[in-house]
Amino acid sequence: MTNPNTSIYIHIPFCKHRCAYCDFNTYAGQEDSIPAYVQALINEIEFVGQRAEQMNIHTVFFGGGTPSLLSAPQFDSILKALRSAFTLTADAEISIEANPGTISPEKLNIIRKSGINRISFGVQSANTEELRMLERIHDFFTVIEAVSTARKAGFNNLNLDLIYSLPEQTLASWQTTLQRIVDLYPEHISAYALTLEHGTPFGRWSSKGLLPPPRPRSRRRNVRIRGRVFGKQGVCAL
Q1: Is the pTM of this model over 0.85?
Q2: 32 phi and psi, to 5 degrees?
Q3: Is residue 47 part of a domain?
Q4: Does residue 238 sit within a domain?
Q5: Between the N and C ends of the chain, which has fewer C-beta atoms within 10 Å?
Q6: 148 falls within a domain
């Protein structure tokens, strides 16, 4: 029996730096463990593939963490294991999350040829001070370069992630970020409200009164502005 429309999520928990707002299962400074982790992933894929019913996979998503820290050969090994264990549809969407500061033309050219056909860049903001506050390792010029490099490598399906309702974020800075992102012509934009999670530095700073909590009125305002900007441009957004 074939199980149609099945998706696979693969978690890559490694980061160069763990951002202060992040509560995901991620680890910074442990890149030496990546080869062993990749081999463990391949072993798990083979194990599940031998025991699961026949699956047609139409979506594969590498999330994290920062999946783009993996080398092109490591991605290729994982994809070969997936194709051996499961049936990937001819038009399968294979995505990776990427930090704009962790890609190169050489890597993108190789992973595109291996079958990865969509990139989701963690942009978060186009404002320098906001990126610094979020402890991101890139600036917006790096984002522009990353999008251009991805296009040249043959990626015609890009998503750009944004975070809004940031501490001290102004209406003008949010509107500027939205317009700059739209001007890059991505196929999709994801925009999420900041949440101050328990156990994160942001959460601790907020509980001590060092970081202002997001205001519901501000969030509603940002959502309305997002809708207006994206609606005018005909952008597919979440």
Answers
A1: yes
A2: -65, -20
A3: yes
A4: no
A5: N
A6: yes
